[in-house]
Design brief:
This protein has 376 residues and is mainly beta. It has five helices and 17 strands. The strands form two sheets. The protein has an eight-stranded antiparallel β-barrel. An eight-stranded antiparallel barrel has the order 10-11-12-13-14-15-16-17. The longest helix is centred in the N-terminal third of the chain and has 17 residues, at 5-21. It is flat. The two termini are 43 Å apart.
């Protein structure tokens, strides 16, 4: 599965959310300008490159905030979703002019008070980055950030906004913007910006946003769930090498803590193909290409079907030839659970925020028979 399918899958997920909320929503348009430093990788080539380039960008977004009075919207404080386009202002021969298209989600802080002028929120974006000048040993050897013209676009941050009329709001935000191919092709240190933005939101609907009284909550079935997942992906290990299969299996037991969160613990197994091709003269053993880990897992439920998995794993054994460079790893992504308990998703597995590989996931959830029914 190639890199360009990552944002396609993500757009499908957010499209499923859009189908649920577009009948009752408040639509808006945003325009923003941002600039900020590029994060160094603390090596000679990145320091030289950062001295040559800078970052300033423009974003346009179209979005909607659901006013459908469901308990999932209520516990997530009536989030906003939408699509956006971003472009750097300046062109540099070393990295090009990075652009991206993305899906986003924005989640307010605080209580559900809808007539406040000043509001705070946090947001996430995931999509497709393009229009970059990748690494080339002949024509662009200094760019160790990215080696592919198309990359994943990932952006997380915090936002403050002030509504000064029915139609207009001003806002400012700060976050981390990342472009990476998930180690499908090396080199892949990733481009990391810290953009600080100012912008204007235009509310396209004059009606006041007011979903109404607190909705009725169903009884909460506090029970355990077994998640069984298969991970598949691709990884390149060295510059100029071909790409090899990376994948594994995970088994987790999660507990339904609340209407919003599940959490638990489990085991992961990872396998990396291609060691015999890369090291033909080595005696490759099972433990050289297979690794095992204990993993703490957490799920944030956005809707009845859509959720974000977050995990922190600690290796019990690391595979020597799989470039598992730290004793622990992180995982974050988005998944969609169908009504038959089958789920699909896309996550990024990383070591200290540096991509190991993109995980395309297919799995199944088995509810535990023992449960405790509670309500608010």
């Amino acid at each position: 599965m190639r890199l360009h399918k990552v944002p396609i899958i993500t757009f499908i997920f957010f499209g499923l959310v859009a189908q649920q909320v577009e009948a009752q929503s408040k639509n808006f348009f945003e325009l923003s300008y941002d600039r900020g430093p590029i994060i160094s990788n603390h090596n000679d080539w990145s320091d030289v490159l950062i001295d040559k380039i800078g970052y300033a960008g423009v974003d346009v977004r179209i979005g909607w905030r659901s006013s459908k009075n469901t308990y999932y919207n209520y516990i997530n404080r009536y989030p906003s979703y939408g699509l956006g386009f971003t472009t750097a202002v300046n062109y540099y021969s070393e990295i090009g002019r990075p652009m991206g298209i993305y899906a986003f989600g924005e989640f307010p802080f605080g209580k559900n008070i809808f007539d406040r002028k000043l509001n705070f929120s946090y947001y996430s974006q995931i999509g497709l980055g393009f229009n970059m000048n990748p690494y080339s040993v002949e024509t662009n050897p200094i760019n160790g950030f990215v080696s592919s013209a198309i990359n994943a676009h990932i952006h997380f941050g915090f936002k403050a906004s002030y509504q000064f009329s029915e139609l207009f709001e001003v806002f400012s935000s700060i976050g981390t913007k990342h472009y990476s191919n998930g180690s499908i092709k090396k080199p892949n240190s990733g481009i990391n910006f810290i953009p600080i933005a100012i912008g204007l939101r235009v509310n396209l609907d004059k009606e006041e946003f007011n979903p109404g009284a607190k909705p009725d909550f169903p009884l909460l079935e506090k029970r355990g769930y077994w998640n069984i997942a298969a991970y598949t992906g691709l990884k390149s290990y060295d510059i100029g090498e071909k790409t090899y299969f990376r994948g594994g299996l995970g088994v987790n037991y999660l507990w339904e803590f609340s209407y919003k969160y599940r959490g638990g613990i489990g085991l992961d197994w990872f396998y990396g193909a291609g060691a015999h091709d890369r090291y033909p003269n080595e005696n490759i053993s099972f433990s050289d290409v297979n690794s095992f880990a204990v993993v703490g897992s957490w799920e944030w439920k956005l809707t009845e079907n859509l959720y974000m998995p977050v995990a922190l794993g600690v290796y019990l054994s690391r595979a020597q030839y799989n470039q598992e460079v730290n004793g622990f790893y992180e995982r974050i992504g988005v998944r969609y659970r169908m009504n038959n308990n089958t789920f699909v998703g896309i996550q990024i597995k990383a070591h200290k925020a540096k991509a190991d590989f993109f995980e395309f996931t297919l799995g199944y959830t088995i509810p535990d028979k023992h449960k405790k029914v509670t309500g608010l």
